[in-house]
Structures are given as C-alpha cells and as structure tokens.
C-alpha cells in the first residue's frame, strides 16, 4: 500500500537517525567509583527523552491498519534497589504489557506496580496503574476506539504513612472512554483523522473535612473527548504534525495542541521543533506553553 510506504518513511525519519546516535558504548572499569556511570545514565535519560519526542510525531494508525505483528505477545520488566549504609530504603517497580492483534482489531493492556520504603522502614509508595487501548478499523475511513485507565494509591488515607499529605489524595482514579473515529484526508502526502467519544471518570479521594466517618468521598462524572491528528509531508526530508485533544467534564475543561516540525537535514542529522499549548479551565493561570527542540546526530 503506497500510503504505508510513506508512513514507513516518516517513521524512519524519526527513528533511523536514533540508531547511530543512541548506540551504547562499553563503560571502562572504575567507572562506578569515579562517577562516570552516573553521568552515563543521565546521558541515557536525555537520549530517551529525545527518542520519545521523535516517536510522538509518528502516528501508527494515520493511514489505517498498519502492517503489524499478529497474535498475542507481550513483555515484562522489573527493577529493584535495596540500600544499606548511609541510606536504609528500597524501591521496587514491575511493569508488563500484553497485546493482541487480529486483523482489523488491535488491543493492549498494561500494568505498572510501584512500591517503596523510606529510611525508617515505612512504606512511602504503594501504587498500581492499569491501562487499556483498543482500536477496530471498520474500513479505510471509519474506526472505533476504547481507552481505559485505573490508578490506585494504597497509602491514601493512611495517616501513619504520610499524615501531612492526605487531604484530597486520590485513593482510586478510573476512566473509560469509547467512540468513533474518521479519516477525513487520507492520501499520499496528507492525512487527517478525528475522533470523538464519551467517557466516564470515577474518583475516590480522602476527605478529612467531611463528617462522613468513612473518610473518603467518591464522584462519578461524564466527560466528552474530541481529538485530531494531522500530518502533512512537505518533502522527502520535511513533514509537520499537529495533534489536538479536548476533554470536557463537570470538573473542568482541558485542551492541548502540539505543532511539530520534523526535518531530515542530512543522512545523519534530524531535528524536531515542537510548540505545545495546554489549557486547563480551573487553574489560576489557565494556559501553559512549551517550546521543544530535539536534535539527533549520528556518525
């Protein structure tokens, strides 16, 4: 499919440059004691941030259902750090994702667990996150989507763990949204898709000011989602994207817009310039603006 070839080219524009630039090198003996390893890890954090910035400019479903791995697959990762000596604490994280692609239908479920203890041996982190993403392509133009998120905080309401940061703390925060999507423009150089849906958000938070002996108050509200994804290839070395999202509910209105300019300046050099605007209706300063510049040079 010709449009998929252009999509692959746009993705390569963002990803291919990262291969030589992000290549890892061996760290010499003694690097830990001299602090070289710590600096190297900070360098990797910068590289990861740049890679993520480029990845955001790619939309896998811009031209419809892309060529992708079929069947069920997934991954699991965990980290643990236990410290003794000047600091007595530990941190543990476990993440996993399982995906299933069957023809026009693709979906994935992800989970993240975080646990930590402070220097006194008291638990200071106990959180769980679950996310869901599903998409069904009805034809080359129409599709349906579903989004889900659940976050829990095991320490919300535990005044022994953190008594100074409890009021308003979320014990549970869940969201589920569904709706249709439509690709308005879908040709070799320009793609524009929009989607709209309805969602339900449920929250349970600590409320010490309420007379309810249960200590928690819960709220369920309906929200409406409107999103736009625009892509235009100006030349083989330059394309632009504009991503817009709007969510409205009884609590507030939230809107974000990010314009991205992506350049392939040479075979080894790529640049992305983005400008993001975020609007939240119930903040004192409602609008935040962020200018981002990412540069990848490989040799």
UniProtKB/TrEMBL annotation:
<keyword id="KW-0732">Signal</keyword>
<protein>
    <submittedName>
        <fullName>DUF481 domain-containing protein</fullName>
    </submittedName>
</protein>
<dbReference type="InterPro" id="IPR007433">
    <property type="entry name" value="DUF481"/>
</dbReference>
<feature type="signal peptide">
    <location>
        <begin position="1"/>
        <end position="23"/>
    </location>
</feature>
<dbReference type="Pfam" id="PF04338">
    <property type="entry name" value="DUF481"/>
</dbReference>
């Amino acid at each position: 499919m010709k449009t998929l070839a252009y999509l692959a080219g746009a993705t390569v524009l963002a990803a291919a440059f990262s291969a030589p630039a992000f290549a890892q090198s061996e760290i010499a003996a003694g690097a830990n004691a001299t602090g070289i390893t710590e600096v190297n890890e900070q360098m990797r954090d910068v590289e990861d941030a740049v890679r993520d910035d480029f990845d955001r400019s790619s939309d896998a479903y811009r031209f419809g259902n892309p060529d992708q791995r079929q069947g069920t697959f997934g991954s699991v990762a965990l980290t643990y750090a236990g410290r003794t000596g000047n600091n007595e604490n530990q941190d543990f994280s476990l993440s996993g994702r399982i995906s299933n692609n069957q023809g026009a239908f693709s979906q994935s479920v992800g989970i993240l667990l975080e646990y930590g203890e402070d220097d006194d041996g008291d638990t200071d982190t106990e959180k769980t996150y679950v996310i869901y993403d599903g998409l069904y392509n009805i034809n080359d133009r129409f599709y349906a989507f579903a989004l889900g998120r659940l976050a829990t905080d095991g320490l919300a309401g535990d005044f022994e763990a953190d008594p100074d940061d409890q009021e308003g703390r979320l014990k549970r925060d869940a969201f589920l949204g569904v709706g249709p999507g439509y690709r308005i423009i879908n040709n070799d150089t320009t793609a524009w898709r929009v989607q709209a849906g309805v969602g339900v958000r449920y929250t349970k938070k600590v409320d010490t000011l309420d007379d309810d002996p249960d200590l928690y108050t819960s709220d369920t509200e309906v929200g409406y989602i409107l999103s736009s994804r625009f892509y235009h290839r100006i030349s083989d070395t330059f394309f632009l994207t504009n991503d817009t999202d709007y969510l409205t509910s009884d609590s507030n209105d939230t809107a974000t817009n990010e314009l991205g300019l992506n350049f392939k300046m040479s075979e080894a050099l790529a640049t992305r310039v983005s400008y993001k605007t975020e609007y939240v209706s119930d903040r004192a300063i409602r609008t935040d603006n962020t200018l981002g510049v990412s540069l990848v040079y490989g040799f």
